[in-house]
């Protein structure tokens, strides 16, 4: 049986970030990934993600503020550009915008309120009579590149990343001993970090740990646009967002947030759901009139959403649950990895982790 200090289950952005930060402390770390790195079955694939400070909760504003320098650290360590700050805007629901502006300002961040006319002057490609707020700290993450970069620096720090490993069964044998069986692999570890995304609840359930997540299959579309845009989130009855066609994306990404059908991660479809596609195309035609409304590409991904759409970053005995989820976790990947490392090593976390406790759902 292989013996290590820490076993990490899952090699998405959270699992790899945790492996990097843990290996840097000198711990012996192995990552067990059921599929290949960068696979399209989960939540960490695709060319782009939004980075933003703009949240209506100061907890997540501060989390994003703490994540930004760690993205720059990852860029320096990997020698790759990974995050382009462009500025961006939130538009729509007045109550959300007021709360978002207040949260940003309470954390020392900028929130510039724009009337519909002022927004049209700056972003004439977006047609809406709704109010908006502009945040200069919004940007675009090179998601696929970030995943590859994090794997590189984790390996350089000494972590081993094993791909195409069969589904892992975890058994707690004591306060400082966990046994993991994955096919023919047997690993004994002092700590186990479960960062398995949509599969996390299945891994944790036999241990008596209930992770209340709802798994849905979401879809995104890419459109041709004859000009530059900035990231936006339109908070209406259905929340929608757009991301510039950076970092090798085939076009500008436009998608709905959290409207996908519930599924099991091993039974999900990769096909486009026509009603959702029709809604997105109709939205593009009315709100983004300079876009070519015929998409040039599409993708699917999984959301793992908790009841309050917040994260779970917590320890239960020798098991650390790292579920930065609910469709908005990628931007926090390097920071969540740092928080996981602090839990494992007993260090002081960079930000308070009480808001992410699993027991809030009990």
Structure description:
With 362 residues, the protein is an alpha+beta fold. It has a single domain, classed as FAD/NAD(P)-binding domain, CATH 3.50.50. 27% of the residues lie in helices and 29% in strands. The chain has helices at residues 13-24, 58-78, 94-106, 116-122, 143-156, 200-204, 274-287, 333-345, and strands at 2-9, 29-32, 48-51, 83-85, 88-92, 112-114, 132-135, 139-142, 160-162, 169-174, 177-182, 185-194, 214-223, 232-235, 239-243, 252-256, 261-262, 297-305, 312-316, 319-323. The strands form three sheets. Strands 5, 6, 7, 13, 14, 15, 16, 17 and 18 form a nine-stranded mixed beta sheet that branches. The protein is globular. The chain starts with a strand and ends in a 17-residue tail after the last helix. The model has no long low-confidence stretch (mean pLDDT 97).
Could you outline the blueprint of secondary structure elements for this entry?
Elements: E1 2-9, H1 13-24, E2 29-32, E3 48-51, H2 58-78, E4 83-85, E5 88-92, H3 94-106, E6 112-114, H4 116-122, E7 132-135, E8 139-142, H5 143-156, E9 160-162, E10 169-174, E11 177-182, E12 185-194, H6 200-204, E13 214-223, E14 232-235, E15 239-243, E16 252-256, E17 261-262, H7 274-287, E18 297-305, E19 312-316, E20 319-323, H8 333-345
Parallel strand pairs: 1-2, 1-12, 2-9, 5-14, 12-20
Antiparallel strand pairs: 3-8, 4-8, 5-7, 6-7, 10-11, 11-12, 13-16, 13-17, 13-18, 14-15, 15-16, 19-20
Helix pairs in contact: 1-5, 1-8, 2-5, 2-8
């Amino acid at each position: 049986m292989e013996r290590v200090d820490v076993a990490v289950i899952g090699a998405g952005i959270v699992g790899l970030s945790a492996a990097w930060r843990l290996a840097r402390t000198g711990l012996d770390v192995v990552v067990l990934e059921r599929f290949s790195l960068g696979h399209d079955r989960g939540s960490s694939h695709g060319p782009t993600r939004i980075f933003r400070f703009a949240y209506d909760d100061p907890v997540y504003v501060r989390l994003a503020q703490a994540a930004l320098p760690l993205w720059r650290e990852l860029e320096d360590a990997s020698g790759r550009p990974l995050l382009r700050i462009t500025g961006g805007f939130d538009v729509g629901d007045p109550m959300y915008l007021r709360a978002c502006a207040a949260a940003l300002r309470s954390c020392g961040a900028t929130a510039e309120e724009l009337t519909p006319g002022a927004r049209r002057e700056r972003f004439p490609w977006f047609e809406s009579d709704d109010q908006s707020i502009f945040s200069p700290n919004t940007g675009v993450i090179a998601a696929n590149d970030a995943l590859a970069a994090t794997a590189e620096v984790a390996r350089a720090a000494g972590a081993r990343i094993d791909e195409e490993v069969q589904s892992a069964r975890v058994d707690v044998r004591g306060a400082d001993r966990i046994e993991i069986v994955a096919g023919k692999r047997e690993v004994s570890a002092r700590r186990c970090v479960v960062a398995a995304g949509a599969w996390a609840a299945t891994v944790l359930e036999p241990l008596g740990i209930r992770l209340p997540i709802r798994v849905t299959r979401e879809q995104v579309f890419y459109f041709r646009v004859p000009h530059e845009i900035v990231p936006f989130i339109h908070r209406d009855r259905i929340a929608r967002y757009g991301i510039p066609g950076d970092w090798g994306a085939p076009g500008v990404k436009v998608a709905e947030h959290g409207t996908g059908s519930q599924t099991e991660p091993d039974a999900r479809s990769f096909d486009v759901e026509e009603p959702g596609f029709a809604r997105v195309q109709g939205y593009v035609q009315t709100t983004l009139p300079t876009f070519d409304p015929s998409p040039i590409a599409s993708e699917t991904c999984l959301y793992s959403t908790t009841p309050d759409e917040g994260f779970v970053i917590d320890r239960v005995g020798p098991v650390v649950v790292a579920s930065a989820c609910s469709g908005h976790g990628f931007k926090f990947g390097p920071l969540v990895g740092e928080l996981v490392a602090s839990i494992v090593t007993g260090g002081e976390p960079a930000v308070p982790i009480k808001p992410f406790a699993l027991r809030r759902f009990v």
